[in-house]
Amino acid sequence: MPVLHATFWHPRPESAVTDIVDKATRSRMMSGIRGKNTKPELVLRKALHAAGFRYRLHVKDLPGKPDLVFPKYKAVIFVHGCFWHGHDCRYFKVPQTRTEFWLQKIGQNKLRDESQHAELVKQGWRILVVWECATRSNRSIGLFMLIDYVTDWLLKGLSTSQIDESGLKPLPCSATESVTTSKALPPNT
């Protein structure tokens, strides 16, 4: 966006983009972001418990401390935030300040996720990643479909998968693999 200096316009350099809050406020806001018991996680937990499923929370003995662990089904569920884990959806936006820092941090998160998933698979666990965007449906039908997908995945012993706002898909082993949709959630409108 151009900026008026004296009597003529200059384009604003990328590095000149400033935050809308001061450094102390931003620090306080960022420190309030939780890694456990997030709203998407609580929505999923409450619905699965109501459906009769019992699980353990944040098991420290397993790689990545999965959000939900179902020993009976030898399955784990991670509820990932679209921003923190770099999901390619409409909710992920690269910050305009400290872009390089954030891209590096999110890239490291993705690499750590991949290695933890590989270790869990090696130990015989099935993995389901539920992305935040899948839980953000404003219509109750979206939540019912999400729970239906998770229930099917658990009961039918389906392979390692992910659920986002477009539906249930295989979980790629690396960022370069493509995925195909086998079921689809209705778009969030």
Q: Could you describe the 3D structure shown?
A:
The protein is an alpha/beta fold and 189 residues long. It has five helices and eight strands. It has a six-stranded mixed sheet, with helices on both faces. A two-stranded antiparallel sheet has the order 1-2. Strand 5, helix 3 and strand 6 form a beta-alpha-beta unit.
Give the integer mean of the pLDDT values: 80
Number of helices: 5
Detail the poorly predicted runs: 1-16, 174-189
Shape: globular
Task: Please describe the biggest sheet, giving its number of strands, its sense, and whether it closes into a barrel.
Answer: 6 strands, mixed
Cα end-to-end separation: 30 Å
Radius of gyration: 19 Å
Decide which structural class fits the backbone: alpha/beta
β-sheet strand percentage:
15-25%
- How do the helices and strands follow one another from N- to C-terminus? EEHHEEEHEHHEE
- Going across the biggest sheet, name each strand in turn: 3-4-5-6-7-8
Helix content: 25-40%
Tally of DSSP β-strands: 8
Keyword list:
disordered C terminus; 189 residues; 8 strands; 5 helices; 17% strand; alpha/beta; two-stranded antiparallel ribbon
Layout of helices and strands, plus pairs?
Elements: E1 2-5, E2 8-11, H1 23-31, H2 39-50, E3 56-57, E4 68-70, E5 75-80, H3 99-122, E6 126-131, H4 132-135, H5 140-156, E7 161-164, E8 167-170
Parallel strand pairs: 5-6, 6-7
Antiparallel strand pairs: 1-2, 3-4, 4-5, 7-8
